[in-house]
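Let us work through a complete example step by step.
Step 1: write down the sequence.
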Amino acid sequence: MRFVRVVCVASLVGLPSAASAATGVIIGDSIGMGVTAASGLKSLARLSIHIRGNKAIAQINEAPAGATAFVVLGTNDAQGSLKGIEQSVDNIVQAAERKNLSLVWIGPPCVRRSWNTGARKLDEMLQARFANTSIKYVSMQDETLCSGKFHAPDGVHLTMAGYHYMWEKAARAADFPITTVARATAPAKPMKLASADDGAVPAKPKKPKRTKPEITAASADVTGTAEPKPKKKRKAKREPATTDVSSLDLPPADVPKPKKKKKQASKPAESTAAATDDASANPAKPKKKKKQARKPAEFTTASPGTNVAAMQKPKKPASKPAEAVEPAAAPANPD
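Step 2: predict the structure and record it as tokens.
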């Protein structure tokens, strides 16, 4: 009875329990999303998160106050320049202090890419930065992870066995209780990279194929076979209605009469004798000669300085009237 009373009093006073002390949260990038799947903790990790910028600090601000925050950052930053990255690390540490978080920083694992030297250099910088501080740093640059047996085909992300290895190593280093999450019997499929600098994008699940409904006894007949659906009859084309004209009492139709051909009047043949008499009585008149049209006078263009008067044709002299000849006087008679 005394033990029961002590437990009741402790609960009323608000003493920290084991459940509240073991509150953990995952903060970070796509590698952190894999660690979340292995640990079963609450996840704030997202794709394309860097140490630089405000996205990591925003995740710190969303974490529950007083919790243990496992920070999985550095893989995306190792691909570029690391100059001035120390200030961004300090900004994350200061944000965690304001939330009273216990930080456990999980370093970038080995990658099977040309920029693996950047991951090693960043790992050394973080080890030196967190030495002799309250922040627990867990390096992932060991022989097991660098051997390549836990890497996915892209050479950056890991299989589920690799994420379980990272989680268990970080939890033991931080004296954090390891949650029991069932491991997959086969390695998980690697996640697709969103871009060269981004994290992984989970593959979309395939839509289930549509299957035809099975024939049940309700839809089958006595023999057990399905009733065939009646075929739709095609509509026949309507033909125009015809009327029997013979049965109707209609007036006779006006049939046009055929036109008669006109007979050409035959001219009576004229006798040869009459033609001869007419020819002798009326002799043929001589045909008049057609007057030839006078051609217009041709004009020539005189060159400058030419006497136009000399070029004109001389006119014919006008004919003088015949002079009257007086009759000679008759000779006088000698009588």
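Step 3: interpret the result. The longest strand covers residues 24-28.
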